[in-house]
Amino acid sequence: MKKTLYLKFVLAYFIFFMFGFIIVTTFVPSMTKEQLVREKAENLYSEAMLIAQSYASGLYTSENSLEEVKAQLDALAVYLDSSIRIINPSGRLVLDTETPINVEDVVMIENFDPTVTRGSYYTVDHFFENYEFDVLSVFAPITSDYKVKGYVVIICDMTTIEASSNNLLSISYITMVILFLLSGIILIFFTEMVYMPLRKITYATEQYASGNMHYEFQVDSEDEIGYLAACLNYMASEIARAEDDQKKFVANVSHDFRSPLTSIHGYLEAMLDGTIPPELHEKYLNIVLNETDRLTKLTNSLLVLNNLNTKGILLDKSDFDINQVIRRTAAAFEGTCRAKTLAIEVVLTGDEMFVHADMDKIQRVLYNLTDNAIKFSHHDSVIKIETYEKNNKLFISIKDTGIGIPKDDLKLIWDRFYKSDLSRGKDKKGTGLGLSIVKEIINAHNENINVISTEGVGSEFIFSLPLAEDYDEDI
Ligand code: ADP
């Protein structure tokens, strides 16, 4: 399977070579010869016409003597590397540049027929069996008083034409060989640039198919193949990462479920076997209740996360007044704030501020962020929820002056189940899922969320939302 592409290409190369060879060795020679004959015939014909109209016609009108004409034609014949004849329509040879003038001896050309050219002005044959080899002969009629008195025939040996044809052909053959050698470069290029990288990619795909997602390979080219290899590499690393994440996720879930279950089991067992006396039951039942609360919270968060993931987050977007949602969220935490002697300061842009988003999910974001701010704030401090407008977006900030987040943890807080060591003491019920839900929701809106935090000083979470379009036009 792997070799077929290469074989196909090599086969195509040799088929190309074979056809090229056949064409060059069959059609090209005959075409070249034909062209050279035609060109030569054209030249000779115009010469023959000139002779017919000048010296030869003078011969028939007795303007020129036979000797004069012979002398002229002899010179011309040498110049044209041909023999020139003047022949009467009956076939009688009047003049031949190859033989001296002999008026007594009447030479007849057997079967002389000027129509032998059949519509053309030249023929390639043995010239009425005068030659034992092929000659090129052109015929030009000598006319006087609208009558054909004779013909000027120029006969040229084919060997010179064949020699120049062969010269041209050898140039074609050399060019062909050079071309084939050069096209061999394409074969080398194909091997290096396409075949080798493809083999690497195929091998990598086999590795991935067999489950080895950590297999890495490199294709150093910036074309489509390089891009394909990079994409494949990226895909494999993402799958490997997802697999690792899943393993971590399952490990975290089991751990987070096991610890409350173990403590519930321990307390209940101790109460049943009397290790915990009945007067302390209420205290430990409250602890058990707390632990079940934690399990419920964990299960709910997992369900939310699962929904967000499986549906690719289907958002039910609408235009709504975010100010109202913020006020409602702040009011919901009034009881918790009073218990902790905290205040929530709400500073909003405008009375109403319409944004285009999924209201329920944004409410969850606000709830999670405010809940965190309260959880990690010190007593008697203020949490500030503020909104401001910039570049057609509304920015919402939730700022506390609590424990803050250590610098090294800042990147990790968005990960599922991540809880900084600092926060553990303050928040025993935390699942570490809140912020990953928040981030998924905001990202699904194609918006961003950021955190600015200093350990021991406080944290500020800022996220953006798109303004509702109608609202946008009004202002
Ligand atoms: P949890 O449900 O445990 O609060 P989150 O995903 O909401 O989980 O938060 C993850 C971690 O990020 C927290 O355990 C805490 O360490 C840190 N964190 C989040 N918000 C704040 C904040 N306002 N102040 C300090 N730490 C925070």
Which characteristics define this entry?
binds adenosine-5'-diphosphate, rod-shaped, alpha+beta, Heat Shock Protein 90, Beta-Lactamase, Helix Hairpins, 475 residues
What is this structure's SSE topology?
Layout: H1 4-60, H2 66-80, E1 83-87, E2 93-96, E3 122-125, E4 135-144, E5 147-157, H3 158-209, H4 224-272, H5 281-310, E6 317-321, H6 322-332, H7 334-339, E7 343-347, E8 354-358, H8 359-375, E9 382-390, E10 393-400, H9 421-424, H10 434-444, E11 449-454, E12 458-466, H11 469-474
Parallel strand pairs: 7-9
Antiparallel strand pairs: 1-2, 1-5, 3-4, 4-5, 6-8, 9-10, 10-12, 11-12
Bound molecules: adenosine-5'-diphosphate (ADP).
Q: What is the total tally of β strands?
A: 12
Beta-strand percent range: 15-25%
Please, what is the CATH homologous superfamily of the largest domain? PAS domain
Ends distance: 66 Å
